[in-house]
């Protein structure tokens, strides 16, 4: 949980805030998300599939952080994900071994698209699709909220 909060502090606090101070919100979202993905490149089992999932996750968390101004929410979400993935379900977390308490996941080398192989479940096709869906839903939610808010203000005039 400490590692996930450190990653959030580095990417979605320090790097993102420096770029937001320069009024570069789109650049802030992309740069910190790419940095987040690159922080995991040296991990065991890293390839294009985990890279896509990590990028989708990072983009979604960056949008949430930008729109809510809450680092605590994205930090807690990230920590809860890592805790569930590693400690509860016993899967590798971003290629790092964990101590399983409830379940112990054994990756099947012949099924990396299903279980993520050495990288862990977040390197699986299922996780990447879910991260993509999360990004889509977060984007649509804040887009709708912004348009609805602007439309409501126009009718108040």
TrEMBL record:
Gene Ontology molecular function: endopeptidase activity
Positions of transmembrane segments: 45-64, 71-89, 125-144
Q: Which PANTHER family match?
A: MEMBRANE-ASSOCIATED PROTEASE-RELATED (PTHR39430), PROTEASE (PTHR39430:SF1)
List the GO biological process terms.
CAAX-box protein maturation
What organism is listed for this UniProt entry? Bombilactobacillus mellis
Q: Which parts of the sequence belong to the CAAX prenyl protease 2/Lysostaphin resistance protein A-like domain?
A: 2-83
Family note? Belongs to the UPF0177 family.
Query: Is Transmembrane helix set as a keyword in this record?
Result: yes
Q: Write the protein's name.
A: Abi-domain protein
Q: Which UniProt keywords apply?
A: Membrane, Transmembrane, Transmembrane helix
State the superkingdom. Bacteria
């Amino acid at each position: 949980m400490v590692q996930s909060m450190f990653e959030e502090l580095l990417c979605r606090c320090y790097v993102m805030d420096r770029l937001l101070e320069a009024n570069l919100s789109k650049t802030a979202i992309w740069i910190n998300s790419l940095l987040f993905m690159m922080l995991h490149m040296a991990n065991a089992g890293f390839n294009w599939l985990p890279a896509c999932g990590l990028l989708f996750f990072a983009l979604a968390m960056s949008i949430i952080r930008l729109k809510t101004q809450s680092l605590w929410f994205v930090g807690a979400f990230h920590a809860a994900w890592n805790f569930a993935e590693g400690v509860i379900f016993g899967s590798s977390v971003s290629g790092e071994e964990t101590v399983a308490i409830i379940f112990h996941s054994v990756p099947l080398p012949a099924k990396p698209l299903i279980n993520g192989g050495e990288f862990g479940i977040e390197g699986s096709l299922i996780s990447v699709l879910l991260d993509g869906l999360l990004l889509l839903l977060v984007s649509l939610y804040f887009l709708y909220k912004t348009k609805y808010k602007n439309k409501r203000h126009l009718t108040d005039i």
